[in-house]
Structures are given as C-alpha cells and as structure tokens.
Amino acid sequence: MERFTAVCEEPARHQAAVLRHLLHLHRATTHLRRHGIQLPADFGAPEGDAQGAGAAAEDAGVAADAALRLLRQLPLTTYGDYAALIDKAVEAGRAVSEADPESQRRWEAATAALTGAQPVYAFWCSSGTTGGQKRLPASMHSVTANIKAFGLTSECNALAFPLTTSSGKDVRFSYAREVEGAA
User: Fold this and answer.
1) What is the largest CA-CA distance in the chain?
2) How many Å apart are CA 132 and CA 10, to the nearest integer?
3) What is the DSSP letter of 76?
4) Mean pLDDT of 74-100
5) How far apart, in whole angstroms, are the C-alpha atoms of residue 171 and residue 163?
6) What secondary structure letter does DSSP report for 50?
7) Which residues have CB under 8 Å from 142's CB, separation 6+?
8) Distance CA 137, CA 16 (A)
C-alpha cells in the first residue's frame, strides 16, 4: 500500500514510466511497425535490465516527452484492427504439434506480431456484450500485472468498504461469466 501511496504523489512521473515500459514490451509488434515506429531495444527497459542502462540514465522529463510523442503518432484502434492477427494466432495455436517443430515457430511468429517478444500462453475471451466475444492475448506479464492490480484493488476495497461477518472474516464476491467453449 505504501508503494501505491508513493505513486499517487507523482502520478505524471509514474504514468510516463508505465508508458515507456509498455512501449518497451511491445516494441516489436505489427501495430507499431505498421505506423513506422521503430524503438531501440533499450527504450523503456526496466532499470535493472542489462539493456536498460541507457534508458535509466536519461532525464525523466525528456524520457516522458519522447514516449508521449511516440504515443501521439498512433491512431486510436478497435478490436477490428487486430482481429485478423488474433485469428491467425488462434489458428496457428490450434495447429501446434510436437511432431511438427515448424508449427511451433508459426505460433511464436503469429503471437509475436500481437505482443512483441512476450510469449502468449492463452487467449482470454470478453463477455461479448458489445458485438460478440473478443479474444485477448494473455502473456505471463499481463497475467502478473492483472493479479497485482486485483490484489491492490482488493486491499483498497477492504479499507474503504470493510465487509466482515460476525466471525470477523471478510466477505468478497468475484464474478466470472461462462467463456467460449466451456462445458
């Protein structure tokens, strides 16, 4: 909770760091290449990264401006802008076979087009309430980020809205809708 409070004291600096980190993670995606954006390998790399030494030494204000300039070059997109890439990745994943090493390379290439260097291990499905179910690539990085966000949200909710039973235990309800293909 202390880290969250510290981030809240300098939100612009934290947002710039998150933007640079996301650009670093996704620097090899088809979307960025499609718009002529090529980032050096060390752009936005975490400070502990061997490749991130140059990025860590940059002035924070200059780094934030550079990330925002890049972001402004990108148009707003919809699921439709990624649907063909996602469909290609899903089909490549369904065709993976241990007997065919080339099928694994096709899967890796198809998912790299979506997420850069991050391996995709699954596709999450949206609820489909706004025009049909959509598939969202899930990497270990995205799962870890979501777990951290969920934990922080739970902690904040528990502080803001203490719901306890007579036994002193917290009462929380999570909701998950049935997903495509679930029995």
Assistant:
1) 60
2) 39
3) P
4) 91
5) 6
6) S
7) 118
8) 24
Q: CB count, 10 Å around CB of 16?
A: 20
> What percent of the chain lies above the pLDDT cut of 90?
15
Please state, rounded to an integer, the average pLDDT across all residues of the chain.
77
**What angle separates helix 11-25 from helix 2-9, to the nearest 10 degrees?**
100
What's the pLDDT at 60?
A: 57
Q: How high is the pLDDT of residue 183? A: 45
Asked whether the CA dihedral 18, 129, 87, 75 is positive or negative, the reply is negative
Q: Helices 11-25 and 60-72: crossing angle, nearest 10°?
A: 60
Q: Look up residue 113 and give its two tokens.
A: 């087009």
Distance CA 138, CA 86 (A): 11
* pLDDT for the residue numbered 56: 43
As a whole number of angstroms, the distance between CA 108 and CA 120 comes to 8
